């Protein structure tokens, strides 16, 4: 559904993007991860036909974005990180305006708009003026606007930016519904835990370069050469900490009130051997397990800010 090949964007002497390559299949929810200024918004603006690339190609639904921008715009719903709303319009008028812009007949809009308001949980705000809505409500209204022409692809740039925790949860639930509807979604965020439950694949971008991409589980497995073992004992925790620092495959040990955290590079056999050794030395082990790697760990490790640094 989305194909990017050797995509670059240069502003003067500054390379915002450097030879980005990316393929996103139909129905996939793709998380675009990276710090502010990494190149996420630039990539999405190119896909939305708002910015011309310096070189390379980008296709949406088979249409090259620079050659067939009108066809691409029919296929996408684009939600920028900063968007404008028309304060003097009511919510329902706002959606009618955009529906008319897509040449949707009024009879169809009359049926469609209540469904969109229901989807984004704004049915009770249909007659409210846009400027009276909270930021979270405006974000959801903008998402409804993106859906008014039933696009196949949604390009959402930091959709949860600036939202309070409740509004973020509401936005996440809406995106889950859109995923179930079969939409292809590319969503960017620097708030990493928000993406973990939603995305099928991620791409990590830094300084305009795609440093990793693929299924979250695959990337996590690639990073499991560096594990964190979490060990709890009934007593002798300080003594155990000192013992572990001298063991093979251990690159770091941290002790706190939740137990001992061990940076470990060995495999399952080495883990079993270490546990056996601890028991034979009489350490009263309550639990010995490998901590799960989350999306934030993935990002930190890939961008060289991970364990052991």
Automatic annotation (TrEMBL):
Keyword line: ATP-binding, Nucleotide-binding, Transport
Gene3D superfamilies assigned: P-loop containing nucleotide triphosphate hydrolases
Molecular function via GO: ATP binding; ATP hydrolysis activity
UniProt xrefs under SMART domains: AAA
Residues annotated as domain ABC transporter: 2-232
InterPro entries: AAA+_ATPase, ABC_transporter-like_ATP-bd, DrrA1/2-like_C, P-loop_NTPase
Family membership noted in the UniProt record: Belongs to the ABC transporter superfamily.
Protein name in UniProt: ABC transporter
